[in-house]
Amino acid sequence: MPWDRDLVVALSGGIGGAKLALGLSRIVEPGNLMVVTNTGDDFEHLGLAISPDIDTMLYTLAGIDNQETGWGRADETWNFLAALTQLGGEDWFRLGDKDLAIHVERTRRLAAGETLSQITADFCQRLGIASHVVPMSDDPVRTQLGTGEGWLSFQDYFVRQRCLPVVTEIDFAGVAEAEPNPLLLDALAHERLRAVVICPSNPLISIGPILAVPGVWDALVAATAPIVAVAPIIGGQSVKGPTAKMMRELGIEVSAAEIGRRYGELLAAYVVDHEDLAECADLDLRIVPAQALMTTADDRVALAEAVLDAADESWSRAL
Ligand code: FO1
Known about the structure:
Elements: E1 7-12, H1 15-27, E2 33-37, E3 43-45, E4 48-50, H2 52-62, H3 79-86, H4 97-111, H5 116-126, E5 132-135, E6 142-147, E7 150-153, H6 154-160, E8 167-173, H7 182-188, E9 193-198, H8 207-212, H9 216-222, E10 227-230, E11 233-234, E12 237-238, H10 243-249, H11 256-263, E13 269-273, H12 277-280, E14 287-290, H13 297-318
Parallel strand pairs: 1-2, 1-9, 2-5, 9-10, 10-13, 13-14
Antiparallel strand pairs: 3-4, 6-7, 6-8, 11-12
Helix pairs in contact: 1-2, 1-13
Residues 13-14, 41, 52-53, 55, 71-72, 93-95, 99, 155, 158-159 line the site of ligand FO1.
């Protein structure tokens, strides 16, 4: 790697991506990691602006994430939700007492005219996070799932209906009009960019919306730094969430190899689990085997190291 290249950009959804982002934040100089998060899962609920992937990222990088649920805050209490239930309120989306604060404060600031990027940057600082968490766009993009039961908004499908409806189509409403976050475009064109990492998040509904924001794909293709993706499928199964189920329903082969094919032209290297190495051998991509399952904190750092090593190897081949 050229010695003066020290910035890393990671594209991520919620829990799976946040684990790798945490690993990256431990090995990249403080302040040199930008994590670009999906906002397609965002929605308005109880009058509040909820940004689940941004919040999962903030809580994870701040070390205050709820490790049992994979979303929300650690040491949470549920008095608000219990009181809401008693009153007959909408309690299918579980907002904890501590978590509630971030939604209330974000909603207040948005109404006062701040952008989602400005609010998120300030939350980063207040939570003691050195990395930059950046929404893919400040404009609203809303993931919708076409199902046997008609079109469902993302959280209706994901939480209220527990991913049970069969998905036949995916749409990112508003994406055609959305401006890409200028901080992302600047970072991708930056002369100090060392690597772009596509985290092991759902390629259809977490990374898909980011890549669908006009200008993002082209800026990635134009970036001089290597792009390295980590497979979110291990041995034909998603580590967490509905990735495998959704791919199956959409008639997409459920394999790490298929995701490698889809990211194809973007990638300098593709990190897959050891068990998927043989299956990926035919891809026209540099395949890097690693332990892709992140169970412990050490696993996250080890995978982050493997990813940046793969990127640095691309530099040494190119120079
Ligand atoms: N996921 C659930 O499965 N059930 C919930 O009640 C729930 C509440 C929730 C509250 C705040 C938040 O930031 C996330 C929350 N999530 C919940 C997770 C979230 O909806 C999804 O994990 C993401 O959108 C998928 O990346």
